[in-house]
Structure formats: structure tokens, C-alpha cells
Amino acid sequence: MTTDPTPLRVGIVGTSWWADSMYLPAFAAHPGASVVGLCGRTAATAEALAATWDVPWFSVDSDDFLDPERLDAVVVATGTDSHEELTMTALDRGLHVLCEKPLAPDVAAADRMARRAAETGAITLVPFTYRYMPTNQFVKRLIDTGYVGTPFHLNMRYFTGYARDHEYNWRFDQELAGSGVLGDLGSHWLHVARWLLGEITHIGCVSDSFYQRGPRPDGSPYEQNEDSALMTVRFANGAHGSLQVCAASWEGTEFNQTHHLDLHGTDGTIYAVNDWSNLQQVSGVRADQPGPAQVLDVPDDIWNGARRDRVHDTYRDVFRAGGAMVGDWVDAVRAGRPIEPDIAEGAIVQHLIDLATQSAAGDGRLLDARR
């Protein structure tokens, strides 16, 4: 537990664009934390990123880097296949851990990580970023305050196009990633669905690879993961849902990405859309009111000062100026209190990903997800 008033000493393992665009800006904006070290695979990349962000120490040796004499907490922002080893080492050395999603290539590894986190009492976080966006926060509030009554149907769609270039991408390499779009995008939607409606008791899936990809950089063969998947789920409260994720889509927006949500309940309906350009909107209609659905204003306290006109500006403000996710984790570590979504939640989501993969390999039937 870190109770000292001096800033939390954070190390980041991974020097990709994500460390540069998400973690380093978010920590720089938080007065309670300081990134004191970076660790990457190549010295030149780690040194350059450290210089850009004025980080005093960099390394290419992760075992040496995870030093509790120099760090209080670590961000694991590497490929999925390295998450378990890095996280377990950090936990064993008394460090608090933020580990990227999907948590692991399979549920056995994820469960080992969750057990070790529970044994050590570390404050952990798995960054399911989309739960923090204002439209999703508003949908959650509307559900919790009874706008739709008893929910019975949830439909969520995540369309993007990073699979369309045919190039090798480790996310589609089964040995390195475990699953493809199910782990990368499906993990987000499975978590958000659980956050909105509760435990998922059954899951089925159909998936496919619509784009064939190039060989590994060394020319060796590999088994290619799916780039599109449609999951069917049942919730413990009796609701059911469809969760669609596709990285082979052409959306034509600024980020070539769109999110859509439809939620029906006994007393009303909610629609949410985010086109990742300029539209981030929630609409609704109640059964006791005349239709059609009307745009519902997202409350100011949910925006929390974030810019509203351009989605990428909103995104930056939520995680930097607003302190969501990364800032919340820093505050939790400094206070010595748990935070969600933690590694235990990441393991539950990985369990669902594994079952979805199993269902897709068969005939797509619903599988019992209760543990």
C-alpha cells in the first residue's frame, strides 16, 4: 500500500503508440503519479520515448526493470502472450499492476493472474476504456435509474477496419494473441455488457476471417485468428443480447470506427451511437410517452468538462483532464482501496472469450458460462 504523499512511482512496460497516446499523457496529467521508467524491446525506441516524455530511466530488461526499490506500480502494455509472466513477476515483487486487455491468451493463464493478485492484495486494473466514455456512462445511469424498466434485450455493435490491409498483425496470430477480434474488441463489449446488465450465464458465437493476412516477418506460417464475430449471450437476470465485433468493416468515419447500442426493456428503449468523428448521442423513448425516440442530453457531470464536438477530443479529455481510468487507478493505489474493473474481472471476460472461441469452432450453440 502506498500512503506516502510523494507521487506514485510508475513504470510502463511497452513502448507502442498506445503507451504514447494513452498512458504517458494520462500519468503526466495526474499530480499523484510520476512515470519514472520505461521498458521496451529495443533500446532506441525506449530511449526516444523516454526523452519525449522526460522519463528519467529506460530499460530493455523487464526482469531488471520490475524493481520494487524503484517502482510502486507498473503498467503492462505489451503483447497478450507476455502479460502473464510480467504481471506475475510484478505481483510477486509487491507492485500494483494495470494490465492491458485481453488479459491473457487463455482463461487458465488469466485465472492464475487473478489468484495471484488476490493473494498479494495488489490494487489492479484492466483498462476496458469504453465504459468510461460519456455516452456509455449515461446509458448505465439510465438503466440504473429505471428508464427502461426491466431490461430484456441488448444489442451492441463495434465496427472498424484495421483487418482490411492484409498485412501481418500479431493480433491475428493465434500463438501470440490467443484469439483475434474476440479478444481485441470482444473483450470490451463483454465487459461493457456485464457492467450494464450483470452476469452472463450463456454464450454462443459464430466467427470468420474475411481477409487473409500476410506471413510473419520471418516468413514462418501461423494459424490466423478471426477478424469478425457475432456473439449471442444470456444474462442471469433473464435478458439476452447480441454482441457483434468486426475489424473488417469500412465505416468511412475519421477513425473508421463506429459503436452502436440498442437496449429494450419493459418501460422503454435506449439507442446510443458513437461514430468516432462528431456524433456521440443517446436517444430514448418510454412506453408511457409518444414516439419516436428523442435525443437525451448527456448530463454535464458525466461530460465532466470534456469537449463534446469531436469524439477524439472527448476521448482525450476523459482520460487526461478528467482522470478517468488511469487517474482512478492512481487514486485507488494511493488510498489502498480496490478498484474495478480489476484482474478478476479481466479473467471472467477471458473465460467468456474462450467459450465464444469454442462455440465458434463448433456450430455456434450457446454454452454454459457459469463457473
Task: Describe the structure in your own words.
The chain has 371 residues and is of the alpha/beta class. The protein has 2 domains: 8-128 and 325-339, NAD(P)-binding Rossmann-like Domain (Rossmann fold); 130-318 and 351-361, Dihydrodipicolinate Reductase, domain 2 (2-Layer Sandwich), CATH 3.30.360. It is 33% helix and 24% strand. It contains 12 helices and 15 strands. It has helices spanning 17-28, 43-52, 62-65, 83-92, 107-120, 134-144, 174-177, 181-197, 300-303, 311-319, 326-335, 343-361, and strands spanning 8-13, 33-39, 57-59, 73-76, 96-99, 124-125, 151-160, 200-208, 228-235, 240-246, 257-265, 268-274, 280-286, 294-296, 367-368. The strands form 2 sheets. A 9-stranded mixed β-sheet has the order 14-13-12-11-7-10-9-8-15. Strands 3-2-1-4-5-6 form a 6-stranded parallel β-sheet, sandwiched between helices. A hairpin with a 2-residue loop joins strand 11 (257-265) and strand 12 (268-274). Helix 5 (107-120) packs antiparallel against helix 12 (343-361) and helix 8 crosses helix 12. 48% of the residues are buried. The mean pLDDT is 96.
Helix content: 25-40%
* CATH level-3 fold name of the largest domain: Dihydrodipicolinate Reductase, domain 2
- Class from helix and strand fractions: alpha/beta
Strand order of the largest sheet: 14-13-12-11-7-10-9-8-15
Shape descriptor reads globular
CATH architecture of the largest domain: 2-Layer Sandwich
> Beta-strand percentage?
15-25%
Secondary-structure element series? EHEHEHEHEHEHEHHEEEEEEEHHHHE
Task: Report the major sheet.
Answer: 9 strands, mixed
**Count of separate structural domains:** 2
Distance between the amino and carboxyl termini: 31 Å
Query: What CATH first level of the largest domain would be assigned?
Result: Alpha Beta
Number of helices: 12
Q: Could you report the average pLDDT, rounded to the nearest whole number? A: 96
> Which spans of ≥5 residues are poorly predicted at pLDDT below 50?
none
Tell me the number of strands: 15
CATH superfamily of the largest domain: Dihydrodipicolinate Reductase, domain 2
